[in-house]
Specification:
With 290 residues, the protein is an alpha/beta fold. The protein contains 11 helices and 13 strands.
Amino acid sequence: MNPLNLPVVVTDSASQLVQDEVKQLNIRVIPLEISINGKVYRDGVDINPEDLYAKMRAEKLDVKTSAPSVGKFYQTFLDIIEQGSDEILCITLSNKLSSTYNSALLAANMIHAELAKKRVVVFDSLTAAVAQGFLALEAANQLLVGKSLDTVIQFLTVARQRTGLIAAIESLKYLAQGGRIGKASYLVGNTLKIMPILTVNQEGIVAPIAKVRRKDSIIPNIISIFIQHLKGAKKVHLSVMHADKWEEANSLQQALISQGLPKSIPIEPFTPVMGAHTGPGLYGLGYYYE
């Protein structure tokens, strides 16, 4: 139940939120789905990131991902309304990376048509992973202290420009297979042994932000790019993420701490539904700054 009639935040599992945060802030997380050799798993529910990445290294898997259905969003929205909420804010990963945003929007329109006095707003984060999660957390915190839905939407429109993902990947193979980079780019990168550092740009698209040839220059490059993005920041929310790259993630964490950042920087496994497209071997960081 929602006795205070507060707006409720809904997001998808690409946001990588941890259960303690979800429960404390009453956020509803809808899992995306991953199909591995024909068997379907719910992201963040019944698939272990470490197991997936180990299998991707050892076996040739047929891995596909899919957005939550319109029906799943519709039922989630309806359940929240029946529990006492008149307003819902649904924050999705970038519409350029998934059809999740479109599914949520269609479900919201169905709710509007049936229950005209209820309000469901679907907000495109234009990002993913922990950066998306930071936006969901900030929105939920603001709504819990009584800020209006419109005020929070205005905040998110500015805040999403202060989020970022910066990550190195071991191989362009998986991105090429999924059509997220051209085959020619993969072949050139593979031949020259170029290791790209990627970001999700302001349009919500995965794009290269740097290219390196030496492994020992990856972390300095990630930190340099990160610091450049933080000009004028008063407070930084930060998390390190990795897909079967624990040692490198730990080194990145320690390098960030050496820059004067808090020692409490968490290290999180990269969500499987995103790692399915990048493959094992990713490590980097996600952030939001005030």
